[in-house]
Predict the structure of S-adenosylmethionine:tRNA ribosyltransferase-isomerase.
Amino acid sequence: MLRSDFNFDLPEELIATYPSEQRTGCRMLCLNGLDGTYSDKHFYDLKEFLKPGDLLVFNDTKVIPARLYGKKESGGALEFLIERLVSETSALTHIKSSRSPKAGATLIIDGGYEFMVDGREGELFKISTKNGESLLDILNKVGHIPLPPYIDRPDEELDRERYQTVYSKIPGAVAAPTAGLHFDDNQLEELKKMGVNLAFVTLHVGAGTFQPVREDDILNHHMHSEFVHLSKEVADAVIQTHKNGNRVIAVGTTAVRSLESAACFAKKSGSSDEIVPFSNDTSIFIYPGYDYHVVDCLITNFHLPESTLIMLVSAFAGYSHTMNAYLHAVNEKYHFFSYGDCMFITKNPMAKEDLPPSAK
């Protein structure tokens, strides 16, 4: 299966660099996975597609101000992007500099805070606060919101609110679970009054989510790893939802990866349940041919050409249905990526048969 199968032409002016005026005001392309038909709606129309007893599964991770600027003791400029908080005082991070710092080096961050380089783990540097200060406290004081690379502008004060879901709770993400950015408090209350149930998993989105697929054959791609916590309460809610004949709706690809990781773990461990509690790293890679276990509908933004995320969507809705919907979105000038518009997709039960040209 070739990376090029998932390419499409995207005019630069369709890349959203700022959020919509109102969270629920974005456009929503609704794709029927069964027959590939679609309709143009807005996110405030979501209630039309939900039923009492449906379960919306959200990712409650909270974006941290993970980008830092500073210098070496020698004066050379540095840029940090925290990848993962390891403890209260340490993290794994990407560092941009003219020369890579060595273990034992002291790095001075804006505000005068000092970090120690403890060593390396692959391409990442392990750093710790030199005086035992809380790393999260330092980030909240002098860190910058780590906007994705395709948003070509410095972060602004509005990003601290809008590049964050209204239900964010657990600090640790360096990228937002962007499908959730469209919900506001009023809409969530309205859905609950309708009888729609809500559940929350935690997946701390890493910077690896933006890493391109470089292999021509996607089966050779090495997927990045992220930490997931899915509780017994959420697993039980998923099981009960299906027992009642209702649907599990993943809000974003991170919720998909959390749910499907827990379902795969259940299968591997020999459990009779379709899903079990899961608290571990996942590097699940979902692409056409994957058999979805628990997700019935998906709310998701539009994704980069040739990315693992458009591959995930293609595995859910079917390859041809997905690419046709993306062509429509481009023609109708939908806005793309993190601050862009979104899709509501129902599962295609025949998606495993709807494969890219190179896989036939």
User: Anything to note?
Assistant: The longest strand covers residues 77-85. DSSP finds seven helices and 17 strands in the chain. Residues 225 and 283 are 4 Å apart (CA to CA).
